[in-house]
Structure formats: structure tokens, C-alpha cells
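Researcher: Let's run the pair from yesterday's discussion. Sequence first, then C-alpha cells, for each.
Model: Starting with the first of the pair.
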Amino acid sequence: MDVIFIDFETYYDQEYSLSKMQTDAYVLDDRFEAIMVSIRLNGKTVTLHGTEESLQYQLTNLLDWSKYVVVAHNMMFDGFIMAQRYGINPRMWLCTLALTRMVKPFLRSHSLSNISKYFGFQEKGHAVHNMKGVHRADMSDADFEAYKEYCTNDVDLCEKIYNEVIGFCPLLSQVLVDMTIRMFTEPLFVGNKPMMADLLEKEIARKEGLMTLAMVSRDEIMSNAKFAERLRDLAVTPPTKVSPRTGKTTFAFAKTDKEFMELLEHPDSEVQALVGARVGAKTTIAQTRAERFIEMTDRGPLPVYLQWWGAKTTGRYSGGNKVNWQNLPARGLSAGLRNALEAPSGYTVVVGDSSNIELRTVMALAGQEDALEKLRAGVDMYCHFASTLYGREITKADKLERFLGKTAMLGLQYGAGAPRFAEMVRIQGKAMGAEPIELEKAYETVELYRGIYSRVTALWRHCERSILPDIATRCDHLRVDVNGWYVTQYEGFGRPGEPGVVYHNLRFDSEKDEYIYDQGRVIGKKIYGPKVVENLCQHASMQIVMWQTARIHQRYPVKLSVHDEAVCIVPDSEVDDCVAWMEDCLSTTPEWCKGKIPVVGEVEVGRSYGAAK
């Protein structure tokens, strides 16, 4: 297929800009004005401009878009313009921003300017900075020609970047990038505005009550020790840091402390309010999220914005466009929002979940055959471990005991020690009323897990003693897992010849006696054996789920992907067929691990995303 490169230049001003608005809000706004669009095909560039109607006519009649792959740097923007304003949907969308995040995840920025500098291409240019508040009608001929040159330079850079990275991008990843873009450019979810408004009203009232209570006890809020105790009461471990002045460990409660500020998005709204009171926040993340969904609903169907390879290490999706679709908690206000995300009339939401995929995958990566046999037989691994721990049969009816078994099976596979495990139980058990466990019980549980699943612990040691040293010395093609599915390569490891986990500039810090690497703006990030296994397992699980998702997408367009879920919105008459197809896809793995990982899926349906979950 021939490849076309495009780039739009559009009007913006101080208030009306992508930096202050969601992409869909900006494009659908009455103030939107496409100044020009440059289109590059077979080494030749044409730049179109004119009124909205003129551009519509020119774009529609220029060529048959359905025959081409169309590429831009940030296709969420250019593609949304093409699809929503001009009704153009090509055979495939691709995005050099998404592809470079996958191929060069360690870079600080994947902007067109930064990527061009990295590859040694010509400068991007700066003409756009002179066009703030300038409509096409207000431009001089010289201004317009300078802007046109800037625009054509952008598509030239986009083509050069594409040619540089496309050879490292498997066809499956290209299909998934196209799918991800279409979630945004061809939305189907509709918002139930009355339900959202009701949830928002309740959240504002709840937040104001909590804020009032918090501010009444201001001495507790502003005292580090008392504030830390309040966090512990809410099952949150107070974040800490090493003071650069004293060299001692202190509480990290400043607005500049990332881990602390992330508590504003904590699933527990009481934690949000408490932290909000400390930093002077006037709204909670739950309130802001509800307000944003209401605004999106007013514009029409809800575009799902996900960043392909958003998680730099594992390659998982991340949120974007001021909405994190990956973080809609199952309780609190956001749980209600799930119910407000509905299918349009005549359609049904179908959700397929690749069950316990990380647990299944880590056992296969480690070669823990006894656990794999139990999984093939349909054994509930949470109940099985809890039964061994308690010395009696534990069933799903024993909710608290099974909860401990589940927390152990999911939490201990990545090397957590007893204190950390006890903390997991305390935090995760709060919602279901589970009592914290004594440290002695935590030690007993950790020792039991490591004794039963000795192949998992052996994989930790292998990654610590062999894999990290080999990556640091650039020794490629060493088997990472027992099956040889993943090998060391490209400053990390992955499926042979494919993008994978990267530990850029990995080296051994003799002073700290640990391995460190650089990632984005973080210099000297610690890495160790069990963490490598976590990265390996999450990356492998992502690849399996994405392969399953792409297979589902062949018949039923996937409109949302959340961790291990694929979400489709299908006509009511096709629900049964979609369910059957999803179940088939979720019970199958890629050829490279076929028959080795006993996967199983669960599929539910409903009028809304929440009802189907």
C-alpha cells in the first residue's frame, strides 16, 4: 500500500489552543480554522488551503483515501480533523509519535522537533510561534509562504522519521496503532448526562464536607507527623524521600513530590480530599473527571484517547487528552461513571477480560509446571494457596481467606517481602473490611509462596545474576525466560527482533551496589531481579492481550482497551456472535507461546460499560 504523510496547521490563540483544551474540544469548536494541510505522496508535496467548504471538496476529490496508509506525527490530532470535520477514513492510520514511543521509549520527549534532532534531520522550524491569534485572512503573503514552508517541512520530517523506524515495527503493532487511533476518531460510547450530573452533584457535596472537616483540623493537616497518621488511617503509606540538605529520610508532602501528588488520583475519595486540603486543591480528581465527561458528552459520542506504548517500560497503554480511560476505579464516583458510559440505541457493550493473565504468564515464563497444570485443570489458584496457608479447604465462599490468597498470588510473584506484603493486605483489604495481618503471618505467607513457587524465585535470581549483567555489557541473544520467548537485545529484552523492554544506559553503581538505568527525565533508576521479572511478565501479558484484542478487532471494532480488557460496542442482533468470537479469541494465544500458557477469558454484556463489568 502507498503511504501518505499529512500535517494540518490550524488557528490558535491564547485561550483557544491544544495546550488548554482537549483535542476533540479544540477540533469541534466553532473557532476551529484549518489554515492549510500539506500532503506528501511518492516524494511530492501538495499544500491545500481555503475555506472549510473548499478544503472539504479538495480533500474528498484529491484521491481515494480508502486505498492508502495515512501517517502523521500525532495522528490523534490530524486524524480527528480528517474523520470528524471532513469525513475521511483511510485504509490505515499510523502515527510516528506512537511508533517512536515504541522504538525509542527512553527519550525524554517524542515531539517532532526532538525526534528530528535525535535522528539528525533538519530543524522543525519556528513559524508556528508567530501565528498565535492570526487567522488566514490576516496573514500577509510573506507570512503565509513562511507558514507553508513550515508545514511542508513537517511532512518531510514525518516521512523521514517513518522511514527510520517502520522497519522495527511489526505489522501487528501497526494494526494496533490504527485500532487505537480509530477508538478516538470513530467513537461510539455515549454519555448519560443526567446520571453524570447527579454523580457530580453528590461528589461536590461529599468533597465539601470532607474539605470542611479537613480544614477544621488544620493542625493535623499541616503537621507532617499527624498528616502521615491520617494517611495511615486511610490505609495509605505516607510517601518519603531523602532530604538533599540533611541526607535523612523525611516525608514527601510537597507539591513537587510526584508520589504525593499522585494521591490526588487515589481510588479512595477521602484520600483525595485529605491531600487536596493539604495542597490547597479546590476540586478532587473524581469531580474533575465527572465534569470533563459531561463536557465530552455535550459534544457527542465520547472519543477514547489512549497513548500507544504510553508506559515506557512495559509498553502498556496510558491515558491522554486530559482523561485517563485506564483509571476508572470500580468503586466511588468513578464506578458510577462506568455506568454512565453507554452504548447508543440499538447497540450493546461487550467486555472481554483475559482472566488472571499475569499470574498465568509468570508461571509459564518461569517454567512452574505444577502451577500450569492446576491452571489447565481450572483450579482457583487463590483458593488453592489459601488452603495451603490455612491448612483447610478454602472456597470462594471464604471471602476473607481467599482475599489473602489472591493478594499473595498477585503480590508476591514480583518479590515483595513480608513488610510490603502486610502493607498490601492492609491497603487492599480496607475496602472489603479485612483485618490487617501480623508481620509474623506475613513472613509465614512469603516463605510459603517462595517454597511452593521455587521456579518463580529462580527466575528472579536468573534476571539478577545473568540478565542484568548481560544487558549492561551489551551481550545480546541470552534467553531471559526458560522458554526462550524473550532474549536480550537493544539495551534490554524482547521477542527476537521486536521492540521490547529497554533499560537505556544500564550500568552497575558500585557505590550503591545496584544496577541503574536512564528513562526519560529520570537518571539512575534502580532495577533488580524481581523488578525485571515484573517488567517481563507485564510486557509479555500486554503482548498476549494485544494479540487477542487485534484478533477480536478483525470482526468487531474494539472501542476501548483497559488493561486486560477489550471492549466492543455491537448491534444488538450481533451480541451472541460477538460473545462467541471474543471467547474464542481470549482462549487463544500467539503462535510463539501456543499451548504453553493456559489462558481463559470472561465475556459480559450490558447497556453500559459498568453493567458489562
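Model: Moving on to the second of the pair.
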Amino acid sequence: MQLIVGNPNYSMGGLDMSSGNDNSIAIFFGSQTGNAEDLANQTKKIADKNGLDATVFDMDGFSASNLSNHKRILIITSTWGEGEMPDNAADLWDETCENNPSLSGVNYSICAIGDTDYDEFCQAGIDWDIKFQELGATKVTELQKCDVDFEPEWQTWVDKVIPAMVSIEIELPSSGEEVSVVEEPIVEPVEIKTKSGDKSPWSAKNPYPTKISECYVLNGEGSRKETRHIVFELGDSGMDYKVGDALGVVAENPPLTVDLLIEKAGWAQDHIVNTHNGERTLWEALKKDYEIHRVNKKFVKSLKEKVKSNGLRIKVSMVERHRETISNSGRGYSNSEVVMQTELLPSIPGDDPVERAEILANDADALEDYIWSRDYVDVFTDFSVSYTPEEFIDMLDKLKPRLYSIASSHDAHPGKVELTVGIVRYSHHGRDRGGLCTIYMADEVEVDKTDVGVFMSPTKSFVLPEDKSTDIIMVGPGTGIAPFRAFMEQRIFDGGDGKNWLFFGDQSSKTEFYYKESIEGWLDEGDLYRFTTAWSRDQEEKIYVQHRLKEHGAEVWEWFERGAYFYICGDKQYMAKDVHRALIEIAIEHGEMSEEDATHFIEKTMMKEQKRYLRDVY
């Protein structure tokens, strides 16, 4: 059966449109940054053109009891965090696992988006696949796993699954048969628009080339951190954004790293290679097209085919992985913008480099430890191996954009978009390194000179209340203050009378009091009702935002009872969990709830049902 992708009037030979067949197909998406949603909408267009009647559903708000009403189901989902469901899919997953509805008679297929650099590659899709089989659904095509460059693999899946779904005959209910009608969260495609209302041509694939007009350090003298305020000009792009959205930035690899890699590998800089962006010199390809700041698993596993018994140059030592976030540097496509601290562990057993390469290829823990702190320069230093440039780039990952929470209101700063960025710098294996995009913006990009590719990544969930009289509480330590600077600017511009309470903190008020003048101005003008700080190093006892929340627990609870929205932005691994726990304890103490009831109120009532506990964490 031929798949039709261009002619909407085509009638598939395998599906009799007049025979009383049910031609419907439900396409569900689980999406954190919008990629899965975009693919769901593209899949719908192809399904419709091939004779199916496709509907796209957001998993958020969909009831597990309604799944069995759809006899053809496609799921397109990303994986978030450490193998977790994306935020919009978490409720449906929990309900499905709790109630285990029968899916007998349901035909399904799943497309999962992930990143092979992570152990939990495509885990959300794998979990859905296992669950649907447990519930009696029929798998139409095998689970499709997609890496960061997901479109070719998605296309392969679509080419198989749409004809397969078309070939399934499902009878419509007879005229006398009772049919239950349910309300479900149908999704209209959300497109990034320009200020004129037209669809924006700018995207991750086609970023808008612009310039940085301001890039200055926010920290005071003596700070151990480097946090910058960075302003991009939107020029003639026509791009618009709302507070809560993110900006995608396309970085380039440091030229020194490119030079070292080519030197270590013994290649010529002007060697011509073919990449996904066309024909380029090797130097340009490694500078702009591929991720080289961290070695991937595919390359390390290939060492066993290349390394020779006498080829070890230095003793390879393993490292213990440990992350310490010094600032919320970015979100979305990559969470690698963090400082890494390591301590040496015993070397891999044996002196034979072949044995060492075999261990890295076959021991998942050893591999994970090895790649954690190394780039390709390190590997070529550790092992005497030879690759052609073509062999090498064939194993590389495409360069991924980085997403940053926008720190400005477009109404307050027309034609500009502003960021609060923690610059990541560290030293490993005798070389200074840093976060790919933060170092690029801080060190390589020249203000008003260097072109930088950007695009908008809109949010549907991290938004201000529609009712401008609603009170809001914002918790954003470190660079987590970024979206709340934008929120305050928007609230002031809109002129609502809702109260604003900001919790902010960092190491010291002397060196990390970001946007101090603006905050003091908001307080003086009465725009910021309350400002509560937590400076962890200004006293002997370390104080964090979760401690301040509990100190003000009675008033926080009063705000909750009046319908206040609660927002948090920043570190997901530690801070967000601590704040979440503080909210449950506030509900126990001041709401006089049991542990179970308090947890339900915070996690279900506020977060899921009322949607007034909103998070931008990574």
C-alpha cells in the first residue's frame, strides 16, 4: 500500500469510505518542549490525507477510562528527567497504572523521542508500550525509538504505521447500538506566530540570525559565579513571545576544542566532508554541525574495533559522576550546562587497551563513568586510534540548540528578548572547559557583531493567570529568577491588582543580588507586595528558599486559600523537590491536613486539577 503525503483528495484503496467503517484514529502526545506535539500534528496531516479521520489529543486532562473508545491509537512521547513521563502525560500515566482499563480491541503503535546519551533512552515510550500490551491492546507496528535527530526515524515509523492502520477495518456501531459520548481534550495545532499573526518561519531547523546587543555580568565583585544578562535583538524577524516562553539558542563549539580534536586525530582542517548541512570543510563541520564537547556512547563503543594492544598512550582512570548545579543555565534540549566535580576512582582493571575498550563497550556503568567528564579530545589522548573524518562524523550527534527561560516581557521591551544566564566554567583532565552555549555567548560572541541563531519555544502551561486580580507566589533562586522578572514586568504592564510575592536566594546578597535596582523599584512602587530572600552563605547556617517558605507558612497557606497561583523555576534535582516537600508540610501544619490529604491537595488539587501550582524546572 502506497503512503500518500501530498494529495488530500486521495481515497485509499484499502479503506472503503462508504462501507460503514470507523476511519477514526487518535493521536496522543506527551511533550515537554513541543517536539512530540509538533510530530503529532504532522502525523495527523499524513493520516488525514491517507483516508483516516485523525484527531490529536493532549494527554493532559485525558481520562484513562476513555482510551478504549478509540480503536486506533498512536502515541508520540518524549522522555523527561531520569526516564520520567513529560509533565503533560504524568496524570494519564498514573491513572492508567492505577485503574488498568481494558484495552482489548484497541490497535496501537508508539513513537518515542529520546537521547541515546542517557541510560533511560525513550523510557516513557517503552513504558507505554509495555502497559498497552498488559491491558490487552494489539500492537500494529514495533515501538519506534528516535534519537535527538528524531525526524528521519519518525518518518520511518509514519511510513509503516499509517498504511498498517488504514488496512484495519473497524465497523461503526449499528444505528440501534448505544454509544457513550465523552468530552475529551481535543488539541488544535499550536503554531509559533509573528506579531502580525502569521506563522513564524523561524524554528530550530531555521533559526533567525540575530545579534546580542548587551551581555554584562550581574554578580558583584568577589563572586564565585558568573551570571550574565544577555539581550538579543529581534530585528525584522516578526517573532513574538509571551512571558513563560523559552528562547532557543544555536551555539557553536569552541574553536580551540575543534583545533585540538583535529590535531589529535591527525586530520586536515580543510578536508571536505558531507554533513546534514551540506558540503563543508572538516573544521567548519566540527565547529557548527556536531556535538563535540562531550563524547557519546556510540563512539566509545566503537573503540574496541580500533584500538590495538600496544596503543595505549596514558593510563585511563575512571571518574565518579557528581553534578552540582551552580545556576539554572538552560533547559530543554540539553541539561548539560552544569559544573561537574569528580574524584578519581581505581583505573579499569588490566593494562591491555583492548581489554579496556572491551570493558567500556560492555559495562554500562563503566561507560557512563568514562563519558561523563570527557570529550573527543580526551578519548584520542587516552587511546591511540585512527578514524577517517567520514567514519568519525558518522558517529557524532547533531548539534542541539539550548533553551533558556525568557527574562523579559515583550510589552516592556519591544523588539528584544532578554535572558539571565549562568556561565558554566570548570577544569577537567588538565583543560579548562565550560557549558557549550554559555561559553559561546560569554566568550565567543561579540556584542553587535556576531550572528547568533535563535527561535522561540512557547509554553502552554507556565503562564500567568488570566484573571489579573489573582495573587501569585514566585520561587526562583539563582537564575531561576529569569521568568519572574518577566512575570513582574508583564503584571505591571497589564495593570492588574493581584498581589505578587517573590522568593529569591543565592549564595550572598553582596554578590548574587540579581536585578536589585529593579526589585527595589517594584517594592517602592507597590508592584511587588512582598520580597523574601534566602542567602545561603551570609550566615553560619545555610538558608534556602524552602526554609523561608516554611517560616512564612501561615501566610502562604492564606494565599493558597484565596486562590493564589504558585510558581517555581530552577533546579529540579534538589531545590524543586525541597520546595515541593515544604508545601506539603505547610498544608499539614496550617491546613490541618493529614500527610495523605496534604500530598493530594498539593500534587493533585493544586497542580493537576486547578493548575495553579506551575513549574519550570530542569
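Researcher: Give me one sentence on the second I can quote.
Model: The mean pLDDT is 87.
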